[in-house]
Amino acid sequence: MYLKSLELQGFKSFPDKTKLTFEGGATVIVGPNGSGKSNISDAMRWVLGEVSSKSIRGTKMEDIIFGGADSRRPMGFAEVSVTFDNTGMLGRLDCPYDEVTVTRRYYRSGESEYYINRRAVRLRDIYELFMNTGVGRDGYSIISQGKIAEIISRKSDERRSIFEDASGIAKYRHKKSETERKLAATEDNMTRIRDVFSEVQAQVEPLEKEAAKAKKAMDLLETKKQVDIQLWLYDTEKIRGDLAKLEENFRASEFELQTAEDAIKALEVQNDKLFEISQSNKSESENLLRQIREQTEINHALDSEYRIGESDIRHAEELIAGAEGVLSSVAKSVSSEQEAQLGHTQKLEALRGELAQKEEEEAAAEQEQRQESANAEKLGFDIASALEDIRALESEAADIHARLELIESSRTSDTDKNSNALKEIEEYEARSTEYRGLCDSLRATVEDYDRATAEAGETVSAANRKLSGLYDARREIEGELNTLRLKQESVHQRIETFRAMEAQLEGYSGSVRFVMKKYGEGAITDRFGAPCGKIYGPLSKLINVEERYITAVETALGANLQNIVVEDESTAKAAMFALKRAEAGRATFFPLTSMRGQSQTPEMRDASGYPGYIAVADELVMCDSRFSQVTSALLGRTLIFDTIDHATEMAKGTRFRVRAVTLDGQQINVGGSFTGGSVHRNGNILGRSGEIKRLEGEEATLAAQTEKIGEKRDKLADEISALEAERDSAGQKIDLIKVMRESENTRLEQTMAKLSANETLTEKLKADCEELLRTRERYEEDHRQLSVRQAEVAKQIEEIGAARATMDIRRNEAGDKAAEAGQRKTDALIALNEIRKDMETEERLMQESERRMQEYLASTGEQNDRIRTLRERIAELEANRRDNRTRFEAGEAALAELNRKRSKVEEGSTEFERKLNEVNLRMRERLQSKELIITEHTRLENRLSNLREEQDKLATRLWDEHEMTRSDALAMGYPALEPSTRAEAAAKQTECRNKLRVLGNVDLDAVNKYKEVKARYDYMEGQIRDLEAAKDDLTDVISQLEGEMESAFLESFQKINENFNRTFGELFGGGSAELSLTEPDNVLESGIEIKAAPPGKIIKNLVQLSGGEQSFIAIALFFAILQVNPTPFCILDEIEAALDEVNVARFSEYIKRYANGTQFILITHRRGTMEAANRLYGVTMPERGISKVMELDINDISKKKGEDWDGIFG
């Protein structure tokens, strides 16, 4: 098995999908401090199952998700995938696939997902997959930054995890832990179950008694329910029978009333004929007859006026009902807007609180960033000063060493020493010449890097200048686009509202909605269950009217808009039967087979010549030819005029015999009554479809504008992306050039220091040669002083080097903290911007809602004014009716007086008087009979109303008590009551109520509770027995695992100890090292002691060693473990940071030695480690907070003799 690739997306500083591929050998990852190199190591540890956020340098797990940058929004998830080649037998994973991909995904909401080869698994499955391989969250294959020395500095008992993983007992310990957890869980379950069992045991007996009581109550309730339903069905059927008889009697009384009116009319005709005969006898009789006719006409006009008043009152009441329906719809809209405003207000308050919090976070992050940056800068100065001190001491040490060698050689032979010194002077001078050439070469390289950096910087600056203008243009376009989207959303919402009103038949009566719903369900049948004919729907759904005529046609049709058009009379009867059966109200139907159109009257033809005439109303309606007779019947005698003045002029000219409606909805009725006022367009049924079409056109226009601006934005985004890519590429080039420039500049400074020291040494050697000739007697004293000084200089170099390494670590930490504070500041600024945008959006939405509220309130005022006007009109009409009746009665009295006078005038004609008296007598009899019929008709009508009300109460009572309808009651199938058995059933109902009252409060669910508790009691009794057996089995398994673990650990520990001593000697060039158990008798819990002594040192405690020595010992132990249990790959994050150049070279050699069997991924700043690389990755941060990876193949880079590298930048 070996590591093939690592893919990151949204993880820490890697927002974009980034893939690193690995091959055999060593892969080195380099980059500046804070560029995100260590995030790659954290990603590998995290995808292999790490659950501690501190182990991956975070405070909470959410920190791993990319938190945003200046130009990037925060991401909602982080995902890392690692792929292994599983074809080899060595280290093969326990998995059937030749390639294994492990994926982990974490969402900002806290949810995690785990996959193996795109199949969802648990975290535990991933942990077990890598157990005992050295790979995994607790394995030794991943050593994070600054963690290598912790192997030495840890307590002895804290070192066990690495050794256990290397010895292969981690899997046993995991099984043991799982078994112990199961054992503990078993014991807890036993304790918990015993506690619950005792409680359940105490409940069984009381519940048994409650169950018996509940069963008795349930039987009583069932009996009562049956009696209630039987009594209800009996009473309902009785009322339905009474209703049928009353309806039959009511229809008969209507027929009798019509017959009486016809007889009265016939007698009136006889009376007129008799009056005409008497005209030839007496002139006075003619005069009286004329007066009688005039009075009769006056009475007839009064009666017509009375009937017209009734019609006007009904029409006004219908208009009031319509206005109240509109008010109800507006009230719902106002309530919805108020709820929306409350939501916007609450959200604004929350956003203001969040805004204040983010501003505080941004200020705190900025302060911390300034402080940490200052600390890092100060430490940088201290480090540079320490480096200068070290170089000065090294120069002095070289000087002392050379002088000591000169003195030592002078002791043997002054001549030889002088000769050798001259030879050394020649060598030093030759070396100085070489150093000068190297300095010139390095200086030229540094200058080349500086020029390349300047050129790339110019490219970045030019791109930034262009991007600044493009960003401003994009913000303007985004603002315009957001405004259009808000308008489009508002229009779409209004369209959906109107469509919903159309679909739900809002504004229509409940009976109309009931019929259409049942017809859609196929539930409209006649009395015999046969399906009905076709129901076309309300008239308003079947006609279309031009927008400017909608108000006029809707006013003309009035309530007829809601009447339902059906195929024939049988369909209408079936629908009425369904309404009656369901007691769902009343509706009017227009059968196509019975509706007949209206022809024009002479008055209508005359009216067409008046000013302002538009057309007959039915001519303005567009519909299917099948419905033309319906529209003609309703509108064929209604004329449309442009204004009320023109309509009034026409009505007066035709003596108010033609109905007229104006374009704004004012109406003049036949007989001379006027109806009018304001009209609310949005509440009109016919106006909805026109409003929907208008809004759809507006929405299409807005969509086209949005698409056009969106294309402009996309084009601008492409231009911005191209410029950003150009800028980022130049920025990455600058970062990598800076890394290599810093490396070359460091070599230049080192070479110049060597040149300076070499020249100084040459001059000193020349002086020493001259001094040697003059002062040979001072050799012994000089040798002693120089030796002492040499030891002091060496000690000073070591102390300053250690202090410099410590300061370097502190500077890196300060830099990381400053970068983290800067990242938090950037996150806060992004959040502040988002919050302010959200607040602006909420404020705009509140303004839109307030505007709509004002429109609704204005509409409410209009409707209330209209209702008030109509009610005033009704009151006026009622007063006119009362006055009309008074005048009518006076006219009747006058007519009687005229008849009396006429009778006196014609006393001479006995036969005429007899006949006239006979006619009058018969008329009076008929009138009296009519009055009696009217009284009976009214009584039957009131009785019908009372019975229907009683029927409604019965239906409500059944629903309130049992939540049943009549069909549900019939479906129960209870035997019907007879009149003789009703009293018995009522007594039984009373008896059940009394028995239930005696039982008192009863838990009707006690029967089920008892069954449940009894079953639970039996189940838990068996469960306790099973748990006791499982506890014994788990105890045996733990004992077996402990034996296997002990033998495996001891065997591996001895091998690691042997390898550690050998590896230590090879790396340190001698010395000894040993591992030991602190408690040999307790192998599985014992701590592990590490003893190590570098050559020439006696160390009692590892703490006495320097940081570099501790790290090197830990590296030796790491390689010793690899020899016993090699891992497929190792990720080492700057573990050689504390080593000097010599030990880095030794470390590099060891990497090369083991690279054939183990992959190494090395994150480093050290040049010596880079030399071991087969592949090189560069990590840069071209934009604050966003890391990028560049791959460099070592085979494409030329390598000079020695340690010099070239060709990285072509």
At a glance:
The chain is of the alpha/beta class and 1210 residues long.
Per the principal axes of the C-alpha atoms, what is the gross shape?
A: elongated
Query: Percent range for helical residues?
Result: 55-70%
How big a fraction of the residues is strand? 5-15%
Low-confidence stretches: 1196-1210
Strand order of the largest sheet: 2-1-4-5-6-7
Question: What structural category characterises the helix and strand content?
Answer: alpha/beta
What does this structure look like?
The protein has 1210 residues and is of the alpha/beta class. It is built from 22 helices and 24 strands. A six-stranded antiparallel sheet has the order 2-1-4-5-6-7. A hairpin with an 8-residue loop joins strand 1 and strand 2 (18-21). Helix 5 crosses helix 19 (1006-1068) and helix 6 packs antiparallel against helix 7. The longest helix is centred in the N-terminal third of the chain and has 130 residues, at 283-412. The model is unreliable at 1196-1210 (pLDDT under 50).
